[in-house]
Amino acid sequence: EAGVAQSPRYKIIEKRQSVAFWCNPISGHATLYWYQQILGQGPKLLIQFQNNGVVDDSQLPKDRFSAERLKGVDSTLKIQPAKLEDSAVYLCASSPADTRANYGYTFGSGTRLTVV
Amino acid sequence: QKEVEQNSGPLSVPEGAIASLNCTYSDRGSQSFFWYRQYSGKSPELIMFIYSNGDKEDGRFTAQLNKASQYVSLLIRDSQPSDSATYLCAVINSSASKIIFGSGTRLSIRP
Q1: pLDDT digit string (tens) for B44-80?
Q2: How many CB atoms are located within 10 Å of the residue A97 CB?
Q3: How would you label A34-70 residue by residue, b for 16+ Cβ within 10 Å and e otherwise?
Q4: Would you call B52 an interface residue with chain A, using a CB distance cutoff of 8 Å?
């Protein structure tokens, strides 16, 4: 079974620029999550999709972050404009379960973003 | 109060000894509990999950859950240098909608 695919692995941008990350979940997984992990901290949920609908985006900074999951498969996360404090690893995860997420997640390899 | 609390460490344990990692959570209605291992520069990897009070063993790993005390622990027996990593405690909240992570405990196994 192929894992969660993410790209790019690394990205360096200047503040106020825009950036986009891509995620392809494990085939058949209905639920997709984007987490932000700042160095030295645990992952923080940004947004959760169930198929192509948003379940939870309460911690997504909507003035600069946006995400979509067209056709209920791939997802993109965008930041525009980026700030220095957005420097972090952005992790995508998927789960076969519904929003109860009782099975734990499988994470992708992440995208390390550095904003300079 | 943080939803999931862990001691950041580092916790240093000699090779072959038992490493004990602890976690407390604030939501009394939390339903499921996970331990993830994260090597430096890598993404988290699920190593244990537990739903019921008591112990759950898997190889050298034992997860312990005490819902009355809102406490989860992970024991690693016969610690190996390859166990050196950050261990993240994670909890599904009472609405059963998402996993909330602690900030992790850095474990170092010294030869």
Answers
A1: 999 999 988 999 999 999 999 999 999 999 999 999 9
A2: 15
A3: bbbbeeeebbebbbbbbeeeebbbeebeeeebbbebe
A4: no
CA distance A12 to A103: 34
Closest residue, chain A, to B4 (C-alpha): A42
**B57, β-bridge pairs:** B62
pLDDT digits (tens, 9 = 90+) for A63-74: 999 999 988 899
Contact assessment for residue A94 and residue A103, using Cβ atoms and an 8 Å cutoff: no
B55 and B27 Cβ atoms separated by less than 8 Å = no
Which residues, including other chains, have CB under 8 Å from residue B80's CB and lie 6 or more apart?
A: B15, B109
Q: Would the pLDDT of A106 be above 90?
A: no
**B1 inside 8 A of chain A by CB:** no
